[in-house]
Amino acid sequence: MMPSPSEKYRPFPQVRLTGRRWPTRTIEKAPIWMSTDLRDGNQSLIEPMSIAAKLEFFELLVATGFKEIEVGFPSASQTDFDFVRKLIVEKRIPDDVTIEVLVQSRRELIERTFEAVEGASKVIVHLYNAIAPSFRRIVFNQSKDEVKALAVEGTRIIKECAAARPGTHWTYQYSPETFSMTELSFAREVCDAVAQMWRPTPEHKMIVNLPATVEAAMPNVFADQVEWMDRNMGYRDSIVLSVHPHNDRGTAVAAAELALLAGADRVEGCLFGNGERTGNVDLVTLAMNLYTQGIDPGLDFSDIDGVRRVVERCNQIPVHPRHPYAGDLVFTAFSGSHQDAIRKGFAQRQPGTVWDVPYLPIDPADLGRSYDAVIRVNSQSGKGGATFLLERGLGFTPPRRVQIEFSHAVQAVADQSGEEVCGDAICALFRREYFDVTGPVLRVNAATLRVQGRSVAMPAASGAASGDVYAEAVAVALGMAAQVSSFETANTANGETAVFVGCRVGEQAVRYGVAVNANAALAVVDAVVSAVNRAQWAGVAQVESEAVAA
Ligand code: KIV
Ligand code: ZN
C-alpha cells in the first residue's frame, strides 16, 4: 500500500491572479526556439556525448532550423570546452545561428566560459542560480538577499567580461532556477535586480528564462506564473521572456503551450523530450502541434525518421514507438473500424484541400513517412485494412462482397499465426485464393476450356453482349449447374480489367471468383473459372467436415 498522500504531500498553491488573459488567447506564431540538447539533454545522458556526437547533433539542429543552440557548459566539462572551441576555430557556426553557453555565478567559471567562446561572432551567456525556498534552506543555506546578490554579482562579472570583448555580439540570459517553485514576488525581485545590473534595452534585449526545473503543478498554474511575470516584471519591453519546462508530471508540452498564451516569447527544450529525469519539453511535439494548427513552426521535420536516427544515435536512447509524430507506430491502425475510416478518408481526399482523414491528425507524408505503415493487419483488423493493402499491392478495389469473403481468409491466417499479416502476405493470399485456384475447370487457351478432362469450346464474346451475359454463357458452357449471381468489374492501376463474379454451383453457397486480364473477355472467363473452382473446393471442404462431424 502506498502511504496516504494527504499526510505526505501538499497541493501546489494556486497563483493569485485576477483577469487572466491566457485562457482566451490563441497561439498565432511560433516562439523563438532554443535547443538545449547539447547542454541540458547531454547532462542527463548515461554516457554524455563525445565531441563527434555533439557535432553531428549540432549540424542536425542547424539543418532543422534552430537559430539558438545551447552548446554546452564549458566551465564544467572539458569535452564541452573543446567542442565549443572546435565550433569556433573550424568556423562551423552559420552566421544566423547564435550559440549559448551555461555558467554559474563564480568569477573563475565565468572567465573560463569567456575563454571557451573567444572569437565567436554571437553568443548568449546564460547564468543560473537556484532561488526556490527549499534550495535556499536545504541545499545552500542562503537567505533571499544572498541568493539575489549571487545572481546580481554573476551578472556584473559577465557584463565586465563582455565589455572587454567588443568583437562579439553578446546577449545575456538569466535563469532563476527552480522558478516554478519560487515565491513569485521573490522571482520578480531577483529578475528585476539582474536586469537592473545588465540594463537591457528594447534594441538589445536580455533573456529572462523561467524554468520549471522540476514540474510541480498543473500547466494552468505554470501559465498563471508566467502571466504574472509578464505583467509585473520590470524592463518587460527589453526582455525576451523564455520558458524551460521539464516533464515530471508528463505535462511539459501543455505547460509550454499555455506559457506561450501567457506571454512567453521563447521556449527551451530538447528533441523528443530528452533531459533530466522525465525530460525537457519535447520541441518536436511542440513544433508539430503548431504545424497541425496551420502555423509554420520554422523548424523542418520533413524527414522525421532521419532526425530520429541521429538523435537516437547521439543520445543512445530510443524514441518510444508511440512517441507523438515520430514513433514507429503513431500512424498505424490495427483496429478494423479505424482502418475502415482511414481508407475512406484517403479515398475521398482531394489534392489541395484541408487535411481531414479520420484518425490521422497529420499527413504522414509531411514528416517524410510513407503510407505503408498506416494500415497494418492482425487479428483485430477487419476488411477495410486488408482492402487498403490489396489496393496498394494489386492496384484495384474488390467489391464489398469479395472484401467480406476475403476478410475471412485473412482472419483465419491472423488467428492461426497470432501475428501481423503484412501487405505482401495479404496480396499473396489473395492470389492464392482467387487467381491460382485449381479445380475441375481449366482455361486451356483463348478458345477452349477443359471441364473435368473434356474440352469445351468457349462461347464467342460478342461485342454487344454485356459482361454479365457473357459470364452467364460461360457458366452454361461449363455444364456444371453453375449460376452467375453477381458480376462486377474494375479498372486496375495499370489499365487492365478486373472481373469479380459470384457463382452458385448446385446447392452450395455463392463463391466469388476474381481475374485480371488486359483482355476483358478473358478476364470474364477466368473469373467464372475461379468462382466455379472455388465453389468446388468449398464443396469438398464441406463434405469433409460433415464426414468428420458424423
Ligand atoms: O532546469 C533548469 O532549471 C535548468 C536551468 C539551468 C535553466 O536547466
Ligand atoms: Zn533544465
TrEMBL record:
<dbReference type="InterPro" id="IPR000891">
    <property type="entry name" value="PYR_CT"/>
</dbReference>
<dbReference type="GO" id="GO:0009098">
    <property type="term" value="P:L-leucine biosynthetic process"/>
</dbReference>
<protein>
    <recommendedName>
        <fullName>2-isopropylmalate synthase</fullName>
        <ecNumber>2.3.3.13</ecNumber>
    </recommendedName>
</protein>
<feature type="region of interest" description="Regulatory domain">
    <location>
        <begin position="437"/>
        <end position="550"/>
    </location>
</feature>
<comment type="similarity">
    <text>Belongs to the alpha-IPM synthase/homocitrate synthase family. LeuA type 2 subfamily.</text>
</comment>
<dbReference type="Pfam" id="PF22615">
    <property type="entry name" value="IPMS_D2"/>
</dbReference>
<dbReference type="InterPro" id="IPR039371">
    <property type="entry name" value="LeuA_N_DRE-TIM"/>
</dbReference>
<keyword id="KW-0100">Branched-chain amino acid biosynthesis</keyword>
<dbReference type="GO" id="GO:0003852">
    <property type="term" value="F:2-isopropylmalate synthase activity"/>
</dbReference>
<keyword id="KW-0028">Amino-acid biosynthesis</keyword>
<keyword id="KW-0963">Cytoplasm</keyword>
<comment type="pathway">
    <text>Amino-acid biosynthesis; L-leucine biosynthesis; L-leucine from 3-methyl-2-oxobutanoate: step 1/4.</text>
</comment>
<comment type="function">
    <text>Catalyzes the condensation of the acetyl group of acetyl-CoA with 3-methyl-2-oxobutanoate (2-ketoisovalerate) to form 3-carboxy-3-hydroxy-4-methylpentanoate (2-isopropylmalate).</text>
</comment>
<dbReference type="GO" id="GO:0003985">
    <property type="term" value="F:acetyl-CoA C-acetyltransferase activity"/>
</dbReference>
<feature type="binding site">
    <location>
        <position position="246"/>
    </location>
    <ligand>
        <name>Mg(2+)</name>
    </ligand>
</feature>
<dbReference type="InterPro" id="IPR013785">
    <property type="entry name" value="Aldolase_TIM"/>
</dbReference>
<keyword id="KW-0432">Leucine biosynthesis</keyword>
<dbReference type="InterPro" id="IPR002034">
    <property type="entry name" value="AIPM/Hcit_synth_CS"/>
</dbReference>
<keyword id="KW-0479">Metal-binding</keyword>
<dbReference type="Pfam" id="PF00682">
    <property type="entry name" value="HMGL-like"/>
</dbReference>
<dbReference type="InterPro" id="IPR036230">
    <property type="entry name" value="LeuA_allosteric_dom_sf"/>
</dbReference>
<dbReference type="GO" id="GO:0000287">
    <property type="term" value="F:magnesium ion binding"/>
</dbReference>
<feature type="binding site">
    <location>
        <position position="244"/>
    </location>
    <ligand>
        <name>Mg(2+)</name>
    </ligand>
</feature>
<dbReference type="InterPro" id="IPR054692">
    <property type="entry name" value="LeuA-like_post-cat"/>
</dbReference>
<keyword id="KW-0808">Transferase</keyword>
<feature type="binding site">
    <location>
        <position position="280"/>
    </location>
    <ligand>
        <name>Mg(2+)</name>
    </ligand>
</feature>
<dbReference type="InterPro" id="IPR005668">
    <property type="entry name" value="IPM_Synthase"/>
</dbReference>
<dbReference type="GO" id="GO:0005737">
    <property type="term" value="C:cytoplasm"/>
</dbReference>
<keyword id="KW-0460">Magnesium</keyword>
<feature type="domain" description="Pyruvate carboxyltransferase">
    <location>
        <begin position="31"/>
        <end position="305"/>
    </location>
</feature>
<comment type="subunit">
    <text>Homodimer.</text>
</comment>
<feature type="binding site">
    <location>
        <position position="40"/>
    </location>
    <ligand>
        <name>Mg(2+)</name>
    </ligand>
</feature>
